[in-house]
Every structure is written in C-alpha cells, then in structure tokens.
Write a structure and sequence with these properties.
alpha+beta; four-stranded antiparallel sheet; 25% strand
Amino acid sequence: MKNSLEEVLHSEQEEKSFTYHKKSGYTGFIWVIVFVMVVESVGVSFLLYKWSAILHWAHLILSISVILFLLVDLQAVTKNPLLIKNNQLSLKIGIRPKVVLNINDIKEFRNGNLYYDEDKKKKEVLDLSLIGLDQPTFELVLETPIHTKPLIGRSNSVSRIFFSVDDKEEFLNLIRKSK
C-alpha cells in the first residue's frame, strides 16, 4: 500500500526540463565578452591610473561589476532549465523575471520569429531571448495577461512571451499532450 501511494505521488511530481542556451552560442559569446572586458579593463585602468586615481578605481569597480553580472547571468542560464511539472510551465531565463504558467492558460503557440522584430519592444510582450543572438523559438500567447516583476523597474502586464528551447519538437509535443 505504501509503495503504490509513493508511486502515485512520484508520478504527479515528475518534471521534464528543457535547455535553451546550448544551440544559441550564448556561452561562447559571454566568455568572449568577459575576455575582452578583462583586457580592456587592464589597459584602460593602467592609463587612468596615470591620469587620475579616482577615475582608475571607479572604472575598475564598474568593470568588475559588469564582468560579475555577466558571469552570474551565464551561471543562471546554464543551471536553470525550463521546467514542466504538474501541468505548469516555469520559464526562468538567467536572471530575467521568472514566469510560472498553467499550461491551460496558454491560448496559442506561434513560431517565435513571425512577429518578433516588430513586437519585441511592446509593453505587453516579455522577451526572454538570450541577448538577441538568435530569433526565439516560440511566441506564447496567453488567455489572460499576467504580471511580471523585472529585476529593476515596475511590474508589467504581459500577454505574450518570446523564448527559445533547444529541443523544440519534444517541448511542443509535451505541451500539447499536457493540455
């Protein structure tokens, strides 16, 4: 009796995860930017130190802060996959806002590059793509708008979400099966 109850609870809690960074080149891009920033910071800091010690330290602190920000975002991107669990889709892309949706609240899935270029700056659109390196895989249209709270700024009402998934066929099949 105890085993069957555990199996039922385990089957309800089973989750499926999907990566979104492996096919985008995001990891390589961030490491190249970090390398260039380290080289630039050393050179500019050396020149600024000869001119003004205050500017040298300000530049050095800002450069280190940006490098740390990029590395934290890269770590968050590689460690936080998209999750589907208990009929809910959890989208946490790096340090961008986390969105948790009931799969039944999804009105429509569209190809991500159909309206992306003209709509990505609209207020009702949440762009969870990685630095615009690639066109997003999907556009998610919601039945009712949700509120998101970005890292900086005020909350927005969002009715459409752009995001990418590495294994788009399996992801779409699982979403359709869950509906």
